[in-house]
Structures are given as structure tokens and as C-alpha cells.
Amino acid sequence: MDKIILIVHMLTALGIIGLILLQQGKGAEAGASFGGGASQTVFGSSGGGNFFTRATAILATIFFVTSFGLAIVAKQNAGVSVDEGIPTLQVEPESDIPAAASDELSDSDLPSLQGDVAEEASAVTDNAANEVSDAASAAMDQAAETAEAAAQNLQEQATEAAAAAEEKVEENTPQ
Q: Belongs to which family (predicted)?
């Protein structure tokens, strides 16, 4: 069935192309492609415009219907398969490669450190942690000193401003 629809679809497409190429342009005579002004009588007294226009409309409708039909046939033929196209891995039971011992495997992707390397890594880590802690303490002490100095400076300025305000009040108070 789909082959018949496809053949009709292709013939309709070719027919539409042919009719569009035969149609006259705006202001041109209908018989220009047939060799003269007397060719108006080939398609009747109204000329070829109505014939070509109707034929093109009919073929366009057929083209639409066959397109719709092909879509329906394609949807019906389409099937969903879960396993289709997925490659499967075939495992051979015996191999030349020896299996790893289970106690050699660890949960981590990182290699394990052994012996002196582990102790050295631990010492470096502890040293770095101590340096970071000392730097943080020094920064906190410096920030506390700066805040204390700023608070003392503000208190001195406030005391001076209060004294100046009292002087102004005394000057402006009538006696």
C-alpha cells in the first residue's frame, strides 16, 4: 500500500512542477509557449489560466493527501523495540589475565600510602595545619588590636566633640 501511495505522490509532485512551468507569467499571453497569438483557442475562449490553475489546485490537494497518507503509513510501520540496536557484550568464562586478589582492592581510587611515606605525609599535613592555625590566630589578634585602636580613637573624638558643644552652649547662654 505504501508503495502505491509513494508512486502517486511522486507523479503528483512531477505534475505540479510541470504545470507551474507551463503557466503564464503576469501579463504574458497563454499561448506564448505554443507559438503565437492564435493559440488562445487551444484552451478555449477563456485561455489557459483557469485550466492550469484548477489542475494545479487539484494536484496540490492530491499531493497533500498523499503526504498525509505516507505519514500515517510510516507511523503504523514504526515500532518501538527496547533491545534493538543495543550491542551486547559477550564474556568469555576463562581468561589469560589473572584476577586481582580481593584484599588488594580498596574502596578509594587513590593509591594507599605505605611505611615512611605515610608518616611523612602525616607530618607535612600536621605542619601545614599548624601554620594555618598560627596565621589565623595572628590575623585575629591584629584585627582585634585594630578594632580596639579605632574604638579608642572614636571615644576621644566623641569626648572632644562633647567638650566643644558644651563650650558653645555656655557662650550662647545669656547670663
A: Belongs to the SecG family.
Q: What is the mean pLDDT of each run of 10 residues along the chain (175 residues)?
A: 90 94 70 53 59 91 95 84 67 62 56 67 85 88 89 90 86 77
Tell me the three cell numbers of residue 145: 588590636
DSSP state of 111: P
The C-alpha cell that represents 150 in the structure block: 579605632
Domain definitions of the chain by residue range: 2-27+40-77, 118-161
Q: What is the 8-class DSSP label of residue 115?
A: T
- Take residue 82 and report the three cell numbers written for it: 527496547
pTM strictly above 0.85: no
Three-state secondary-structure class, residue 93: coil
In angstroms, rounded to a whole number, what is the distance separating the alpha carbons of residues 33 and 47? 13
